[in-house]
Design a protein that fits this description.
- By secondary structure, the protein is of the alpha/beta class.
- It folds into 2 domains: 5-259 and 473-488, 3-Layer(aba) Sandwich (Rossmann fold); 262-470, Glycogen Phosphorylase B (Rossmann fold), CATH 3.40.50.2000.
- The protein has helices at residues 5-16, 47-59, 100-119, 130-151, 168-175, 192-195, 201-208, 219-232, 262-267, 273-283, 304-317, 339-359, 376-385, 400-408, 439-451, 454-470, 473-506, and strands spanning 20-24, 31-35, 38-42, 62-66, 81-84, 91-96, 156-161, 180-184, 213-216, 236-238, 243-246, 249-255, 290-297, 325-332, 367-370, 388-391, 415-419, 432-434.
- The strands form 3 sheets. It has a 10-stranded mixed sheet, sandwiched between helices. It has a 6-stranded parallel sheet with strand order 15-14-13-16-17-18, sandwiched between helices. It has a two-stranded antiparallel ribbon with strand order 2-3.
C-alpha cells in the first residue's frame, strides 16, 4: 500500500493516539523578515525543512526551532508561538530565542566547526573549543525547557532532528522518563577511530542514548554508531537486535532513508513550462545550448570546486563541446560567519573566472555561478528544463536535491550525475554514478550526460521516478512514527499495569 499524506495522518492518529507530536529542529520551516515597512514570510533553503514541513502539515503538532528571522519576535503570540503555514495553518511553530553568543558558540561553533567536519569525510579538520561546547550544552538545555513546556504533563512523542541536539534526548529523559524520544541524525556517522578524537565523545554518546529510537539514513551509519558506542562507553550493544542498553534503558538503532514529497515538487512547476523556459534561457544566455544545473548550499562537503574542475577537464578533453552547453551553479550562501566558508566562496569565484577565461568564446562562458538563495519557485523549473543535474557531494547522509530533480522531471527526460558518496546513490542507481575526487571520471560522466540519447534518458528517469514516488517522505515519517507509536503503546501498557498493581495493593 502506497504511503500518502492521508495514510500518514491515519497512522499517526491510530498509533500515537492522544500523544502529542513535537518536532525539534534548529532550522524553522517559516521565517519572518522585515522588508522596509512590511513583514515577509519565507521558506529557508533547507533539505530538512523541505522534508518535514509536509509531514507536519499532515500530522499537526508543534515544531520547536530557533527563531532567527528579523521579524520573528513581532509575529509570535505571548507564548512565542505562531500558526503555520501562513496561508493554511495546520501546526504550531514554537520559537526559541538565542543570544548572539549562544548562536555563535552552539551553531556556528560546536555544531558546524566540530560535529559537522567530524562526521563528514571531507578532510576538513574539526575544531574543538571548550567555550563552544559550553554554549552547545546551554542551548540544548534551553531547547529541553521549551519542549517540556510544550508537552506539559501529557503523553508525547518528541521527534528530534540532527546533530545540533546530541544532548537533548538525555535531558528530556531525565525530566520525563515516560516521554517517547526519537531522533533522526541527518548527516553521516563516522567510524569509531574518527569519533574518538572528540574530547566530549562520552557525553555526546550518553546524550544520544537517551533516545528510545535513533535513526540514520543507511545501515552503514548505524553500524558505525554501534561500533563507536561499543568501544567508547559502558553499555550493552546487541548487534542482533541493533540496540544499546545503558543504565537500564534501551535505544534501538535503525536505518530509514529520508525522502521528499514528489507532489509538492510538481506543484511548483508552472502549467506553461515552455513560456518560463524561454524567459530562463534568455536570462542566462543559454540560447539553444544544453543546460547542466546544480543547486546547493555553498559548503565544502558538496564538492563544488570538484564540479568546476570537472567542467575544466571536460573542455580540455572535448574541445568540440565549447559553446555547446552552460553549467549553471546556484550556490546559496551558508554559514558565512565561519572562515572556512568565506574562503570557499572566494575560491569558487576565482575558479569560475579562471575557467571561463581559459575556455570562453565571444559571449559564451561555460560556468555561470550565482551565489544567492533560489526558492523552489525558481529551482524546480530549472530542474525541469535542464539536460542534466549534478550532485557531487564528497560525503552526504542522503542529499534531497537529487530526488527533487527526479521528481521535477515529469517529462521523463534529463540525466542525473550523482556522487557515489551520497545516501541517494544507494537508491538512485540509474543515475550516472561518479567519484567526485576523480576529475577524469567526473568529466567522462558529464560528457555521458550531455550525449545520452533521449531513449536512455527516459528509461533511467522512469525507474528513478518510480523509486522516489514509492519511497517518499510520508513513508519515511510513517515508518519512524509507527515505531514510535509502538513505544507509546508499550508505555501505556506499563502504566496501566502499574496502576492496577497499585490499586490491588491498596485494596
Amino acid at each position: 500500500m502506497a504511503w500518502t499524506k492521508q495514510r500518514l495522518e491515519e497512522v499517526v492518529r491510530d498509533r500515537l493516539g492522544e500523544a502529542k507530536l513535537v518536532v525539534v529542529a534548529n532550522r524553522e520551516p517559516y521565517i519572518h523578515t522585515y522588508e522596509e515597512d512590511d513583514i515577509r514570510c519565507i521558506r529557508p533553503a533547507s533539505g530538512l525543512t523541505t522534508a518535514l514541513d509536509p509531514v507536519m502539515r499532515a500530522c499537526g503538532g508543534v515544531w520547536v526551532a530557533h527563531g532567527g528571522g528579523s521579524a520573528d519576535r513581532a509575529t509570535v503570540d505571548p507564548f512565542d508561538r505562531v500558526a503555520v503555514p501562513p496561508e493554511d495553518p495546520s501546526y504550531t511553530l514554537r520559537r526559541v530565542w538565542l543570544s548572539k553568543a549562544e548562536e555563535k558558540g552552539y551553531y556556528y561553533g560546536f555544531s558546524n566547526e566540530a560535529l559537522w567536519p567530524l562526521c563528514h569525510v571531507a578532510y576538513t579538520r574539526p575544531r574543538f573549543d571548550s567555550g563552544q561546547w559550553r554554549q552547545y550544552r546551554r542551548v540544548n538545555r534551553k531547547f529541553a525547557d521549551a519542549v517540556l513546556e510544550e508537552v506539559g504533563d501529557g503523553p508525547a512523542v518528541v521527534f528530534i532532528q540532527d546533530y545540533h541536539f546530541a544532548l537533548l534526548p538525555r535531558m528530556l529523559k531525565n525530566a520525563r522518563d515516560d516521554l517517547v524520544v526519537v531522533q533522526f541524525w541527518h548527516i553521516p556517522w563516522p567510524n569509531r577511530e574518527v569519533f574518538r578524537v572528540c574530547p566530549w565523545r562520552e557525553e555526546i554518546l550518553d546524550g544520544l542514548l537517551g533516545n528510545d529510537l535513533l535513526s540514520f539514513h543507511v545501515q552503514y551509519h548505524c553500524n558505525n554508531f554501534l561500533d563507536t558506542v561499543d568501544r567508547a562507553i559502558e553499555s550493552i550493544v546487541d548487534m542482533d537486535r541493533f540496540s544499546v542498553t545503558r543504565g537500564g534503558r534501551t535505544t534501538f538503532v535503525r536505518p530509514q532513508p529520508i525522502s521528499i514529497d514528489p507532489a509538492a515538487v510538481r506543484a511548483w512547476l508552472p502549467p506553461a513550462i515552455e513560456g518560463m523556459e524561454f524567459s530562463m534561457r534568455k536570462q542566462f544566455g543559454l540560447r539553444d545550448r544544453k543546460l547542466i544545473v546544480a543547486a546547493d548550499r555553498v559548503d565544502y562537503t558538496k564538492g563544488i570546486p570538484e564540479r568546476f574542475a570537472a567542467i575544466d577537464r571536460l573542455l580540455e578533453r572535448h574541445p568540440e563541446m565549447k559553446g555547446q552547453f552552460v553549467f549553471l551553479q546556484i550556490g546559496a550562501p551558508s554559514r558565512v560567519h565561519i572562515p572556512a566558508y568565506r574562503r570557499l566562496n572566494d575560491k569558487l569565484d576565482t575558479m569560475a573566472d579562471e575557467i571561463n577565461w581559459r575556455h570562453g568564446q565571444d559571449s559564451w562562458k561555460p560556468i555561470v555561478f550565482i551565489n544567492q538563495h533560489y526558492g523552489p519557485n525558481r529551482i524546480f523549473p530549472l530542474f525541469r528544463i535542464a539536460d542534466a543535474c549534478v550532485v557531487s557531494s564528497l560525503h552526504d547522509g542522503m542529499n534531497l536535491v537529487a530526488k527533487e530533480f527526479v521528481a521535477a522531471r515529469d517529462d521523463e527526460r534529463g540525466a542525473l550525475v550523482l556522487s557515489r558518496f551520497t545516501g541517494a546513490a544507494r537508491e538512485l542507481t540509474d543515475a550516472i554514478l561518479v567519484n567526485p575526487y576523480s576529475a577524469d571520471e567526473f568529466a567522462d560522466a558529464l560528457y555521458a550526460a550531455l550525449t545520452m540519447s533521449p531513449e536512455e534518458q527516459q528509461q533511467r528517469m522512469r525507474r528513478m521516478r518510480e523509486q522516489v514516488e514509492e519511497n517518499n517522505v510520508y513513508r519515511w515519517a510513517g515508518e519512524l512514527l509507527s515505531e514510535a507509536g509502538r513505544l507509546v503503546e508499550a508505555r501505556r501498557t506499563v502504566a496501566e499495569i502499574q496502576e492496577r498493581q497499585t490499586a490491588e495493593a491498596l485494596a
